[in-house]
Automatic annotation (TrEMBL):
Keywords: Cytoplasm, Isomerase, Nucleus, Rotamase
One Gene Ontology cellular component: protein phosphatase type 2A complex
Protein name: Serine/threonine-protein phosphatase 2A activator
Annotated Polar residues bias: 438-457
EC number annotated for this UniProt entry: 5.2.1.8
GO molecular function (one): protein tyrosine phosphatase activator activity
GO biological process: mitotic spindle organization
Catalyzed chemical reaction(s): [protein]-peptidylproline (omega=180) = [protein]-peptidylproline (omega=0)
Skewed-composition ranges (Low complexity): 424-433
Gene3D superfamilies named among the record's database cross-references: 1.20.120.1150
A Pfam family of this chain: PTPA
Biological function: PPIases accelerate the folding of proteins. It catalyzes the cis-trans isomerization of proline imidic peptide bonds in oligopeptides. Acts as a regulatory subunit for PP2A-like phosphatases modulating their activity or substrate specificity, probably by inducing a conformational change in the catalytic subunit, a direct target of the PPIase. Can reactivate inactive phosphatase PP2A-phosphatase methylesterase complexes (PP2Ai) in presence of ATP and Mg(2+) by dissociating the inactive form from the complex.
Length: 468
């Protein structure tokens, strides 16, 4: 397989390659390869894992604010927000995907929720899913340009078209009709659908300077999340592969990565992704516990949009139903630190967890083949705790020293994380856990998040110092 590299984004950031359309390519029907816990270690050195990570970091860096020098010699800052022209006036390729999502969303009106008693999920979701399956071939015909729609087909019988691979990821991106659930594994499937389109050259009509990546995030990923949130609310879909209260979010992860990137310290086109600092006058992370700020910021920022949805569906103190997000809100090193941590956490809690990735199918676009440049897998506490092969009595392999699997695309080195500690803290969060008292403190003093103050959290007394 011959690959043609894309024009690289300026700066030290690799991009996912686009397949050479003139070179022959054998598409295959994606199949399940992760059947038990040890298979996850094999996945972490696969070409699929490499390509997912490259595409994630490519889009992540594109969402970081940019800094340039204006005609007057002063710094000029450019941010990328929900509702901007990047979403409302995107490239034609993105517009077609928006139309696709609008059609998928309309199927909900054709499958109203069942009014009968139920314990988990609404059975009418299966009717909605059947509509999606039925119309999927026509949907892809409308989305894909003619050459792409017939890519991989010829007069030779037995060839698999590219649409077979794309269909598997698109259909897998909207939950499970069998289990009536939705989670980060389904979100990953839709992300792979977009990555597959990228590799096929679908997005070549956009501006190849970071603009098309922003079109994808704001013009496709955010609208996709709106459709998913409506599905969850309409059919009361169960969280899939959730950690419960100790998870970041019951259903999604990507908006926290891209949303934190929107608020990081601004960079020039030649700078790498910042690992700390915030955009000048950025909304503070601590404001996620203030509903009035969330309601305003969710219109512009993906992180706050995700938190706003949590507020829509959960009641009670934020620190009680979302302790990990609450803990992250106390970080004082800026949105860059949060973004770095979210990438590491995605690698550890999504890509490295058997319950999440077990249903991900592998084809030619996201291949199960070993990445020849991947470092040898190391056993971390994560890998030791994976479910074993059914019936296997083999003892777990020894835990190796170091940080575990190091994703070559991940920021900050090793990405392995231990299980959440009893306090529910994010492992990369503040050095001291936040006290979560059941009643206000005797002094009656509260911190800026409206939580009773605690002498055990000195980091809460420092100030955010955004930098531009």
């Amino acid at each position: 397989m011959t690959a043609r590299p894309d024009p690289a984004l300026a700066g030290p950031s690799p991009r996912l390659e686009v397949l050479d359309p003139s070179a022959p390519h054998a598409f295959v029907t994606p199949t399940k390869c992760i059947n038990d816990g040890p298979d996850v270690a094999r996945f972490l050195v696969s070409k699929a894992y490499r390509d997912i990570g490259l595409f994630l970091m490519q889009l992540n860096r594109a969402m970081c604010p940019r800094k340039s020098t204006g005609p007057d010699g002063k710094d000029k800052f450019t941010t990328y927000q929900i509702g901007s022209d990047l979403e409302t006036k995107p490239a034609a390729s993105v517009r077609r995907l928006q139309d696709m999502l609008a059609k998928i969303n309309s199927f909900i009106d054709q499958a109203p929720p069942d009014q009968g008693p139920r314990r988990f999920g609404n059975v009418s979701y299966r009717k909605w899913f059947a509509l999606l399956e039925e119309h999927l071939p026509a949907i892809l015909r409308e989305v894909l340009p003619e050459p792409l729609h017939h890519r991989g087909t010829s007069d030779t019988s037995g060839q698999t078209p590219a649409t077979t691979e794309l269909s598997a990821y698109l259909l897998g991106g909207f939950g499970s009709a069998q289990r009536l659930d939705y989670g980060t594994g389904h979100e990953l499937s839709f992300f792979a659908f977009l990555g597959g389109l990228w590799k096929l050259g679908y997005f070549q009509d956009g501006e190849q300077n970071g603009t098309i990546e922003r079109n994808i995030v704001l013009g496709v990923v955010e609208p996709y999340l709106r459709v998913v949130r409506r599905l969850i609310l309409t059919y009361t879909l169960e969280p899939a592969g959730s950690h419960g209260v100790w998870g970041l979010d019951d259903h999604s992860f990507l908006p926290y990565i891209f949303g934190s990137a929107q608020l990081t310290r601004a960079i020039t086109e030649d700078e790498p992704m910042p690992l700390e600092g915030s955009l000048l006058r950025a909304t503070k992370p601590s404001f996620i516990v203030k509903p009035e700020y969330v309601e305003e910021e969710r219109k512009r920022n993906m992180y706050f949009s995700a938190v706003g949805f949590i507020n829509d569906v959960k009641k009670g103190p934020f620190w009680e139903h979302s302790p990990i997000l609450f803990d992250v809100s106390g970080i004082k090193d800026g949105w860059g630190k949060i973004n770095k941590g979210m990438v590491k956490m995605y690698n550890a809690e999504v890509l490295s967890k058997f319950p999440v990735v077990q249903h991900f199918p592998f084809g030619s676009l996201f291949s199960w083949e070993a990445d020849p440049d991947a470092p040898p897998p190391q056993q971390s506490i994560h890998m030791v705790n994976q479910p074993p092969t059914q019936g296997s009595m083999m003892p777990p392999p020894p835990v190796m020293g170091g940080a575990g699997m190091a994703a070559p695309w991940a920021q900050g080195g090793g990405t392995s994380m231990p299980p959440p500690p009893p306090g529910g803290r994010a492992a990369w969060g503040p050095a001291h856990p936040v006290s979560r008292p059941q009643a206000p403190s005797a002094s009656g003093r509260t911190d800026q998040r409206g939580v009773p103050s605690s002498n055990n959290a000195p980091w809460m007394r420092s100030s955010d110092r955004p930098s531009g």
